[in-house]
Amino acid sequence: MLQTFYKYQGAGNDFVLIDNRLKVFSKNDTKLISKICDRRFGVGADGLILLEDTDQADFKMVYFNSDGRESTMCGNGGRCIVAFAKFLKIIKSETVFVAVDGMHKASIKNDIVSLGMIDVNQIRQQDDYMFLDTGSPHHVVFVDDVEQIDVKKQGSAIRYSDLYISQGGSNINFVTQINSDTFKVRTYERGVEDETLACGTGVTAVAIAAHKSNLTTTQQVQLKVKGGDLSVSFDENENIYTNIYLNGPAVQVFKGEFLCEH
Ligand SMILES: N[C@@H](CCC[C@H](N)C(=O)O)C(=O)O
To answer: Is 37 in the active site?
Structure first.
């Protein structure tokens, strides 16, 4: 059977998107999903996202990492599915959709999507790293020069260390401050098991970690990633972060069909 798909990218974090409102695509076929995401044997993507019907909201997002397994929230994928829902005429410029971590408000203007993220009220602050969950788990390390880091090697070492092995792993973010409100970020993503060009829940975690550790006082943080620029805004009251929004581009890059077999 041939399955129509669309490819989107959000700051270089790329995804295969499928309209699964008719429930034709099987969610349990890990092998097929990882093959579709394979950059040599398939379409190639950091993840695959299904848009499904729900009676709770405008639509439902189901996210799989490129290893074929369903995972926790994907911020850039969330921004891409909003652009996809607009393309499919399910929404106009504003929406509320449901994902694995709950309801998300979002708006889209031209190709820029602003996505509401879950509140953050628990941050583990250690001398050499911070850990927080922004829909997905994130380890944040501030370093002198992020360009000098071997993200795959060092990220994988932390991701598979005793810190996270028993809790299903973590994404690992390496960060260098550029100026009072701007940070350069490189992320090792769990489930891709490599550096990606951007990670939405990752930059959200970095913005909050930077504010929490007094590296910045701004509540509108600029994040430079390999695939472009993102920004994160939030409110903070007594160490509780609310009204968190991840902002940046989400662009359709092509449409195609793949064979549903492996
Ligand atoms: N690319 C994502 C994060 C996707 C989830 C992550 N790989 C995990 O399994 O925790 C983003 O933009 O947030």
So the answer is: no
Instruction: Give distance in angstroms: CA of 191 to centre of ligand 1.
Output: 8
171 is in an annotated binding site: yes
Q: Which domains does the chain have, with CATH numbers?
A: 2-107+250-259 (3.10.310.10), 123-249 (3.10.310.10)
User: What ipTM does the predicted assembly reach?
Assistant: 0.96
Q: Along the chain (262 residues), what's the average pLDDT of each consecutive run of 10 residues?
A: 96 98 94 97 97 98 98 98 98 98 98 98 97 98 98 98 94 98 98 98 98 98 98 97 98 94 72
pTM: 0.98
Give a three-class secondary structure readout of 59-123. Answer: CEEEEEECCCCECCCCHHHHHHHHHHHHHCCCCCCEEEEEECCEEEEEEEECCEEEEECCCECCE
Q: Whose CA is nearest to atom 2 of ligand 1?
A: 74
